[in-house]
Amino acid sequence: MKKVFFVLLLQSIIAASFAQSENETISIIPEPVSITKASGHFVLPSTINIAIDENKDLQMIAETFQKQLSVPTGYNTIVNDKTKSGNASIILSINKTKIATLGDEGYNLKVTPDNITITANKPAGIFYGLQTLLQLLPKEIGSKTLAKNVKWEAPCVSITDYPRFVWRGLMFDVARHFFTKQEVKDFIDDMVKYKYNILHWHLTDDEGWRIEIKSLPKLTEVGAWNVKRVGYFGTFSVPTPDEPRNYGGFYTQDDIKEIIQYAKTKFVNILPEIDVPGHSLAAIAAYPDLSCSNGVGNIGVASGESIKDWKTHTALYDDNLCPANENVYVFLDKVLTEVAKLFPFDYIHMGGDETFKTFWEKSDAVKELMKKNGLKDMDEVQSYFEKRVEKIVESKGKKFMGWDEILEGGLAPNAIVMSWRGMQGGIKAAQMQHDVVMTPTTFAYLDYMQSDIMIDPKVYATLRLKTAYQFEPLPDGVDAKFIKGGQANLWTEQIYNTRHMQYMIWPRALATAECLWSQKGKKNWDDFTKRTEANFERMDQQQIKYSRAMFDPIFTAKKDANDSLLIELSTEVNGLNIYYSFDNSHPDNFYPKYSTPLSVPKESVMLKVITYRDGKPVGRQIDMPIAELKRRLKLKPDAEN
Ligand code: ACM
Question: Mean pLDDT over all residues of the chain?
């Protein structure tokens, strides 16, 4: 009887521990192709033995991982040749027989009570398997210091995973505001956690030239420096001649080599962007004869002044290189010789966006060029320029890439198009059998606000997390082989420091990562928001700032039957309670709970709203003037802001 009881007890303990594992929440971003949970855990021993195949890349990957483990755990971590290893905790191994479905970046990850094994066709796959493993370990694994009282274990699980797209990019604009070498490395560290593999480095613009070109020293002596202004970029006054031009910076070629080498250890390719012919005030400040107007009337390197009229597409200052000046092509040849030598990636991005033709239209040299080459309009002039630039890029052994404006007036023969003004440019280029990277403003612009303008720093547009999550890089009816993938873009006009940079990236770049890595059928908004929340706790450990905008209330102004204001409140995340006040006091969860659209009490001037879950505030309180809602209703009845 005793024996039967003991067996039953044992069975129920096993069942309970199995149920515990089965129910344990696994929160991996981007969502893997398949996850099979099993019972139990692998508990990290106090000496962690990472066993690897003899392979230089694996050695490097394992040594990096070793550091990631040893700081927070305080455990002794060693890397061993597999043949010598006895009690391996973590085994990293390259498949002798390649598994086709895994491709170059996929992996299999198995956690059992005895050990953890990651296998892949290539080292990149092992690297991504380890990024997943980090998300299986307790969140304190991201701690920058020793984390005490943590049970260092990973749930037993079997994961098969590989990316949907080969191009998974994040663009970092270091031209509008300069970010240091260390900040760029930190950016790379953060992006690879979510399996991004391309850093699109926007190195030149009106506000700064950030890459040392040894044959053209003024580009950085002059072009890297402007006048520091804070406030709303695009509205600043033109600096007076006595204001010091000491704000900015640049990367020496040694810095760039160091960053490229660093990125390589994280399986990140760096795509350099030299943005021409527009967005070139910094280059023109250094070498004024590069513009058709010889720099006459120009303002030097821009410092956030209004330099363009966006409504009429008119340039207020000439920030274009001159397509009719042969010296411009000599200049670009010099720049590209050095860029091509520095960057191992196959592609060079040559910009091409927002080239307002105001000063080209006034130029006799451009008129002459048009006559000589039978160019009928300004789009064809830009196309003439782009085709010549493509030839220079190709002469350096690289592939030419540009923003979708390069389609206008005729696409250069081998150009790769980065589609940003929606998906249309990308679709057109793919139909013309050109390779495409999708990065539409509608889903992928991380410089836009992510919450209401009443609480987020003002930018001219909004991209909410939920919209970012709806990014589908492969449009229906387009041949998949031309869509290389996509990326999210972080322009930094309004980003003055790294904390705000992080706030703007996360969590929207989590959404983009999932849109680019995970299988389409795996996407699930509710599940993603839960995993994102779990990731916030990881980011807290890693001291990374992020936005909690997904919990904020959303205001929609409507009209009732009497044409009076009716206010709809909602949230992006499901399952939140919304509380409000009209009497200027701060609402909490004892205030009225929102259920149906609200009419405004007579003479009330302010609606204050906050979201709660399980009796705790989760979103930020937003104070919304009634006058602002009335303004929105009148101006843009359907707009959020
Ligand atoms: C762009 O956003 N101007 C490419």
Answer: 94
Reported as a single tens digit per residue, the pLDDT across 207-256 is 999 999 999 999 999 999 999 999 999 999 999 999 999 999 999 999 99
Are 280 and 228 in a shared domain? yes
Q: Enumerate the active-site residues.
A: 205, 279, 354
Residues 6+ apart with CB under 8 A from 431: 478
DSSP structural state of residue 422: S
Residue 202 shares a structural domain with residue 351 = yes
Domain span at 96: 2-161
Is 379 a domain residue?
yes
Q: What is the pLDDT of residue 26?
A: 96
CB-based contact 211:272 (threshold 8 Å): yes
Q: Are residues 566 and 621 in the same domain?
A: yes
Tokens of 497: 């420091």
Ligand 1 centroid to residue 378 C-alpha, Å: 19
User: How many angstroms separate the alpha carbon of residue 420 from the centre of ligand 1?
Assistant: 7
Count of residues in the chain: 641
SS3 586: coil
Last residue of one domain, picked from the residues 469, 496, 523: 496
Q: Which atom of ligand 1 is nearest to the CA of 441?
A: 2
Residue whose Cα lies nearest atom 3 of ligand 1: it is 353
- The DSSP bridge pattern shows strands 34-43 and 153-161 to be antiparallel
Instruction: Show which of 139, 161, 183 is a domain's final residue.
Output: 161
For 112, other C-beta atoms within 10 Å of its C-beta total 14
Centre of ligand 1 from the C-alpha of residue 289, in Å: 25
C-alpha distances in angstroms, 527 versus 26, 530, 534? Answer: 11, 5, 11
Residue range 470-497: average pLDDT? 97
Residues 378 and 413 in one domain: yes
Residues 288 and 416 in one domain: yes
